[in-house]
Every structure is written in structure tokens, then in C-alpha cells.
Design a protein that fits this description.
Order of helices and strands: EEEEHHHHHH
Distance between the termini: 34 Å
Helix content: 55-70%
Largest sheet: 2 strands, parallel
Shape: elongated
Number of helices: 6
Structural class: mainly alpha
Radius of gyration: 20 Å
Length: 155
């Protein structure tokens, strides 16, 4: 069983060194290690799909009926943990798109956990660390530049 594939934009003739490796024509993009690589339309579609999946997961989480459990799971698992990888691996502009699409979804979820929607001033307090009197909410629009810089410096 061959587990290798060659991705190419146009069909290639058989490579002499790898005659048995199948070739896959790639016209829009692929996902490598959880990161979309390809055209801007492909990346935008991947971001929309990611936000939709996150929104569905948050809806399930909020149906638990326990605000304390939902808060803990939201902060530890579904909040920044799922988004940080993409923010570090996407180009800055596409990461900005992701952060701006995810932020309202997270804000709505935290509003449900808190029992009322957050106004702008309340949201600014909620994103503060717990040690500074906030809820410790990770707002992707705030940590996106740092995630991009950290990725750039580590590579």
C-alpha cells in the first residue's frame, strides 16, 4: 500500500525515480497539519468551515446547563486552544480574517455562560487575565499579532 502522493497543479508525466507514486491534481488547496495551503478562496472556505464547526461545538457546550463547567471547558479547550494553531500558521491577513470571524462567536458563547450578552466595556474587562480581575477570555483579535510574531520568530 503506497501512502505517498505527489500533488501538482498540472498533470505531470511519470517521474523516473518514483514511477509507482500516484499523482493528484491540485487546483485549489490542501490541508497540511491542520493548516490550509492554497488559493485565498480555499483558505477562506476553510476558515468559514472552522468557524461553523466551532459554533456548533459551542452550541453543544452551552446546552450542558452548567455555566461553571461550560466556562472551564470553553477556557481550556474550545477557546484559544483551537484557534492559536491556525493564527500561528496562516499569513497575517488571513489570520486577521479568522480572528475577526471567531471573536463574535466566542463573545456570544461567553455571554451565554455569563447570563447576559457582553457590552464593549464588559468585554474589555472579560478579556483581562483572572489575576487582573477579568475572566481570562482569550480574544483572538487581541492575541493574533503576538501569535503571528511568535510563529515568525520561531521559524
Amino acid at each position: 500500500m503506497i501512502r505517498r502522493k505527489i500533488f501538482c497543479v498540472t498533470a505531470l508525466s511519470a517521474l523516473p525515480n518514483l514511477p509507482d507514486v500516484p499523482q493528484v491534481q491540485w487546483d485549489s488547496g490542501i490541508v497540511l497539519f491542520g493548516t490550509p495551503v492554497g488559493s485565498s478562496n480555499f483558505v477562506r472556505q476553510f476558515i468559514r468551515c472552522t468557524v461553523k464547526k466551532l459554533s456548533s461545538a459551542l452550541d453543544l457546550l452551552l446546552s450542558l446547563g452548567s455555566p461553571q463547567s461550560a466556562s472551564l471547558i470553553l477556557r481550556s479547550c474550545l477557546d484559544a486552544a483551537k484557534i492559536t494553531h491556525l493564527l500561528c500558521s496562516l499569513p497575517f491577513e488571513q489570520g486577521s480574517d479568522l480572528a475577526s470571524e471567531v471573536q463574535p462567536v466566542l463573545r456570544r458563547a461567553w455571554g451565554v455562560v455569563a447570563g447576559a450578552p457582553f457590552a464593549d466595556a464588559q468585554w474589555n474587562l472579560a478579556v483581562l487575565p483572572i489575576r487582573h480581575g477579568g475572566l481570562g477570555v482569550a480574544d483572538p483579535t487581541l492575541f493574533h499579532p503576538q501569535a503571528t510574531l511568535a510563529s515568525f520568530l520561531s521559524s
